[in-house]
UniProtKB/TrEMBL annotation:
Name of this protein: D-arabinono-1,4-lactone oxidase
Annotated metabolic or biological route of this protein: Cofactor biosynthesis; D-erythroascorbate biosynthesis; dehydro-D-arabinono-1,4-lactone from D-arabinose: step 2/2
EC number: 1.1.3.37
PROSITE patterns, per database record: FAD_PCMH (PS51387)
Length: 485
């Protein structure tokens, strides 16, 4: 029996009592949140049950039920991943209510937060203590655990992927045990988890290195594509954070160069670009492009014209790092060795020119985003072992409507693969364990950790089974979660 000093063990809880304890955090089957749809509106799933825990104990209850019933559990945050990474046909554990700040240490410059906190909320909490994250990707409407599990990146040739700022993790393993790991304590579990796709365990807490709050001065200007490729090394090294947006239809590259500054805030916002034209008019044009694909070329030229002017902005770091992604979209992004960048970009241009010359050719949207990161040592990081260039393409979904993308992405990915490309883990790709083993020298070490901490595969959804374990068949297929749309 349980006492005040010795509470009832999870394994001793009667099944009906377990159901009762889980009822308050179980989403009713008819509720809209019982169906999971990712931000890009590209994947959807109807889990067996969706749980929304508010405490670590409730998470333990979910895992206890899964163990007893032989079900899988998939953690999901706000659903930002444009792939089926978060989708499951088993149990889903939604983490948005696990969003507390545990500790902020100004002197030692770190924060401890629950994994379900969004970056937007984390920015606000850090700002209250005059702290900030050192680097960011393009979007802060995603969870801290999500960016850690996928080695999300920003841009800056001397800055590593965001997972490298993690000092330690608190995980809930498949057997219900809570463990803390770092580079010094259980280092193999740590290195597997800071780009582990949520497959090593549930990320409860993240201890993250931060720095004093800072502003960035960002200069944006257009340069000719050939000039950008020829002068790439100088361009990338000219500022702390450099990212490029390539408009292949117009042959120009929009260069964003940002450095830390003490200047007073001076944000730049064009009402015409960001409101009337940048959102409503362009979305309508992309809608027309679904009907007449040839229009997409001229829409790309129009987009380049809209951003033709040089701009200078000074603002808080996260406001400069983040950009408006505007609409739901299909997207794919690959990381190539930095030294391959000029040759890869030239091959991409030649391919896109061939498509445009063909009346029946593909007509991609704009822009192609190009970013850079420093080498790191994370087992499954696409930047592992070498400086990296990340290249991503998109196909917008105007008004949420589908657009052709599969042929475009397949041809793009073949070019990236020829240049040693590794796909971004949060985005859809077709690589299985045989190909991944060639790209990641520690791949088998990663799999060994999974088999040790989760031998029954509790945290293995179809994405993990397909890509990491090579499972085939209808229940693991890459389009299984397309059917619900």
């Amino acid at each position: 029996m349980a006492t005040a000093d010795a509470p009832l063990r999870l394994t001793d809880i009667p099944l009906q009592t377990l159901y009762s304890l889980l009822e308050p955090i179980t989403v009713p089957s008819g509720h809209p949140r019982a169906t999971f749809i990712n931000w890009g509106l590209s994947y959807a799933c109807k889990p067996l049950a969706v749980f929304e825990p508010e405490s670590e104990y409730q998470c333990q209850l979910v895992l206890e039920l899964a163990r007893r019933e032989g079900k899988t559990v998939r953690a999901a945050g706000v659903g930002h991943s444009p792939s089926d990474l978060a989708c499951t046909s088993g149990y889903m554990l939604r983490t948005e209510k696990l969003d507390k700040i545990i500790e902020v240490n100004v002197e030692k410059k770190y924060v401890v937060a629950q994994g379900g906190i969004t970056l937007n909320a984390l920015h606000a909490a850090l700002d209250a203590h005059k702290l900030a994250m050192s680097n960011l990707g393009s979007i802060s409407d995603q969870t801290l655990a999500g960016i850690v599990a996928t080695a999300t990146h920003g841009s800056g040739i001397t800055f590593q992927v965001l997972s490298t700022y993690v000092l330690s993790l608190a995980l809930l393993l498949a057997d219900g045990s809570r463990v803390v790991c770092s580079r010094n304590d259980r280092p193999e579990l740590f290195m597997a988890s800071i780009c582990g796709l949520g497959s090593t365990g549930l990320i409860l807490e993240v201890k993250l290195a931060v720095e004093p709050a800072f502003r960035l001065r960002e200069v944006q200007e257009n340069v000719d594509f050939d000039d950008a490729v020829r002068g790439l090394d100088a361009l990338v090294a000219a500022a702390e954070h450099v990212r490029l947006w390539w408009f292949p239809q117009a042959g120009v590259v929009r260069v964003s160069s940002a450095d830390r500054t003490q200047e007073p805030p001076n944000p730049v916002s064009s009402w015409l670009w960001h409101s009337i034209v940048g959102y409503h008019v362009l979305q309508f044009l992309f809608f027309l492009g679904r009907i007449v694909p040839a229009l997409n070329y001229w829409i790309g030229c129009f987009g380049a014209w809209l951003v033709r002017d040089l701009t200078v902005a000074v603002d808080d770091s996260h406001r400069i790092f983040n950009v408006d992604c505007k609409y739901p979209q299909f997207t794919t992004e690959w990381a190539i060795p930095y030294g391959e960048t000029p040759a890869c970009l030239q091959e991409l241009r030649a391919w896109l020119e061939e498509e445009h010359a063909d009346p029946q050719g593909l007509r991609p949207h704009f822009p192609i985003e190009i970013r850079f990161t420093e080498a790191d040592d994370i087992w499954l990081s696409p930047s592992r072992g070498e400086r990296t260039c990340w290249i991503g393409i998109i196909q917008y979904k105007p008004y949420g409507l589908n657009v052709p993308y599969r042929k475009l992405f397949a041809r793009f990915e073949k070019i990236m693969a020829r240049h040693g490309g590794r796909p971004h883990w949060a985005k859809a790709h077709g690589l299985g364990p045989d190909a991944l083993r060639q790209l990641y020298p520690r791949f088998d070490d990663f799999i060994a950790v999974l088999e040790e901490v989760d031998p029954s595969g509790m945290f293995r959804n179809p994405y993990v089974q397909r890509h990491l374990f090579g499972k085939r068949g209808a229940e693991f297929g890459e389009r299984i979660f397309k059917e619900l749309q």
